[in-house]
Amino acid sequence: MRIPSDTGRHTLGSFAFCVIAALGIVSAQPLGRSAFAQSPAGSTTRDTGSPNLSSDERKPSDPGESTSLTPDGMGHEPLICGNSETPGADILIQWENDGAFFKPNGASDEHYTNGVRVDITFHPGFASDIAQALPLAPGVIDHPHDDIRSAFGLAIGQSMFTPRDTASTALITTDRPYVGWLYLGAYLQRQRSDVLDHLELDVGLTGQPSLAQDAQKWVHDLVGDPEPMGWNNQVRTEVDFNLIYTRKWRINILTTDDVAALPIVQLIPHAGLTLGTANRNAFAGFLVRAGINLPDDFGPSRIDNPRAATGQPRNGDLGFYVFGRVNGKAVQHDMFIQGGNFTNGPGKDVQALVGDVQAGVAVYWRYFELGYSQSFFTKQFKGEVGSDSFGGFYLVGTFCF
Asked: Does the structural domain 7-34+77-399 have CATH classification 3.90.600.10?
């Protein structure tokens, strides 16, 4: 899907993000107080005025007794809602596209041409119970269960794939097929210290029910682009799923010189596996980021790599960072290239090994974060001409409902 490159393109993109952000803010209540407060000396102490504290907790601490860090060990304050200690919910909005507004240094309208996804993550009790019960918990011998942080997320998304030639009505057998994918996802995240597990199940529809054909035609009509003509040849309707597991490790490479030792540069390796009827692959890579007031997470978000919602947001700090990510993937199956699993249709043979690099920047203030990146891929199927790339934005905010 190509977004126009003139002023109208920029207006359309800016308007869309403003509307999305406004809807999220209007639907949320004001943020609650934190259960921790900063002392005048800059150290973090327990706020004994909270109505939810026990009588023992309200007793004055010993003179001079304080702790320089909040329980997450990174100087972050936990966000609570109202008069309870229920953490706030995160709303994450992502939009990826290969058009000029998203990637002005090389716009296109082909292959992975558009993706949108909206996530909401929160912290119910059952997520903690499941996180403790699941195997492979890092540090299970050295740390008690109450050191585990957890989050549960729900997502809805749509991905759109087309061949290079969208003007032809004929069946194109020399390129990847038209595919739309409309899906729902649910995931559990578990963090112990500097290790994160992400387990996600996505179930979705291809074909006409994916609404990809209608969405691309509507946007092209809106911005005055030629109508894509080949959607009658798209992969037919079927139900498919992906089960995705990812583990990430967070390593502080450089920290501040003060007692807090806050991170300035981090290395975040990752590895994982996808098993499903839509995709089957194994992947591994790493991310490096550097900045000021780094957030308590495991790196920025991309649609195929959601951010961690297990960390604590900073309260009032302005921060930013730049990042680069390298990823390699061993591919056994990719429905979006090879075509449908249960219906006959066009498709291409996948490349067994695929790589991609991503570079971008993120800025955040209080409970909001905005990020932008560009991603570049090696050839993903046999006979592919050139290679694919796209740009992407994400916006995340923490709210009390």
From this structure: no
The two structure tokens encoding residue 84? 């309870």
- Residues 6+ positions from 138 with CB-CB distance below 8 Å: 192, 193, 195, 197
Percentage of residues of the chain with pLDDT beyond 70: 74
Torsion 4-179-23-153 (CA) sign: negative
Question: pLDDT tens-digit profile of 102-117?
Answer: 877 776 778 999 999 9
Among 217, 223, 6, 219, which Cα is nearest to 104's? Answer: 6
**54: its two tokens:** 């026990």
Cα atoms found within 13 Å of the Cα of residue 371, Cβ hemisphere only: 31
Report the 10 Å Cβ neighbour count for 131.
23
Quote the pTM value.
0.79
Two tokens at 28? 């949320």
- Cβ neighbourhood burial of 250 (10 Å; 0-12, 13-18, 19+): buried
In a 10 Å sphere around its CB, with 0-12 CB exposed, 13-18 middle and 19+ buried, how is residue 396 labelled? buried
* 77: phi then psi, degrees, rounded to nearest 5: -100, 130
Q: What are the residue boundaries of the structural domains of the chain, listed by start?
A: 7-34+77-399
- Here the tokens at position 125 are 């009790």
Nearest partner of 200 among 242, 249, 239, 149, judged by Cα: 242
